Design the sequence.
């Protein structure tokens, strides 16, 4: 076995520190599993309020994912293939919400798209259309925090793609649009799927920007994460069960996409996509 991957060469103190780190990440989940009211779990998940919140979360997260694909793929292509002044600034700007506190993102959305926002005032005045405290507002907030995950993943795939395939297609007379549809997109399909699933999972679990920009109205803007937050005061056992549902979804996504983040095989340097 390659010495770099051999466990015998890993220093004992480092193993102990790594074990502590694993415990640090495991204990909160173990705590939830320990306190979960398993005998009433099905009842908590299937009550009307939980199902309504879950349905709204699924609908809004799917819409947010669709918008992320429609706008995020061209953005990723622009950042990966087009050199222009300020490209690094644009990349940082378009992925800022990955590290921005979600509540801050919600405040920023409110002052941009709210009734008196830079753009929102004209939507209200000209079209009588308002985003805050509506289901559409939930979708916008989720898209804002989720799209960067797709952009980063797809951009990395585009950068790794062998450009000779696209050059050959254009040499044979294919248009840029035809080449993009028939050569580029099929080549990056796994990364696109991975980015879409990541964006969906992030949108499904979004809380801060949603409650700040869209509010918390049952059946309209109250998603499953918001239900968890409210249940902590009124019914902690239900909050635990709903939290475990969201954790299970996120955990499944992370396990399923692990090979998309570290695509290198044995003996290869990993190609980190995120």
Sequence:
């Amino acid at each position: 076995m390659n010495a770099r991957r051999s466990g015998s060469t890993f220093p004992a103190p480092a193993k102990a520190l790594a074990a502590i780190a694993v415990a640090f990440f495991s204990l909160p989940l173990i705590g939830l599993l320990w306190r979960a009211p398993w005998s009433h779990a099905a009842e908590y998940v299937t009550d009307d309020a939980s199902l309504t919140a879950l349905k709204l979360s699924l609908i809004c997260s799917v819409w947010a994912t669709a918008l992320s694909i429609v706008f995020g793929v061209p953005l990723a292509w622009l950042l990966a293939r087009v050199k222009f002044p300020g490209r690094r600034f644009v990349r940082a700007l378009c992925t800022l919400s990955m590290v921005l506190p979600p509540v801050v993102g919600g405040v920023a959305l409110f002052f941009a798209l709210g009734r008196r926002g830079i753009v929102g005032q004209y939507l209200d005045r000209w079209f009588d259309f308002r985003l805050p405290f509506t289901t559409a507002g939930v979708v916008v907030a989720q898209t804002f925090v989720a799209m960067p995950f797709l952009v980063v993943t797809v951009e990395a795939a585009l950068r790794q793609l062998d450009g000779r395939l696209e050059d050959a297609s254009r040499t044979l007379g294919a248009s840029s649009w035809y080449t993009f549809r028939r050569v580029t997109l099929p080549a990056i399909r796994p990364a696109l799927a991975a980015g879409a699933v990541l964006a969906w999972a992030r949108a499904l679990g979004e809380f801060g920007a949603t409650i700040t920009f869209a509010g918390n109205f049952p059946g309209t803007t109250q998603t499953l994460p918001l239900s968890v937050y409210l249940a902590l005061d009124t019914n902690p056992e239900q909050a635990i069960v709903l939290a475990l549902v969201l954790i299970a979804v996120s955990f499944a996504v992370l396990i399923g996409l692990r090979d998309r983040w570290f695509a290198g095989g044995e003996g290869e340097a990993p190609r980190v996509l995120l």
Notes: Residues 41-261 form a domain with the MetI-like fold fold (CATH 1.10.3720.10). Residues 48-81 form the longest helix (34 residues).
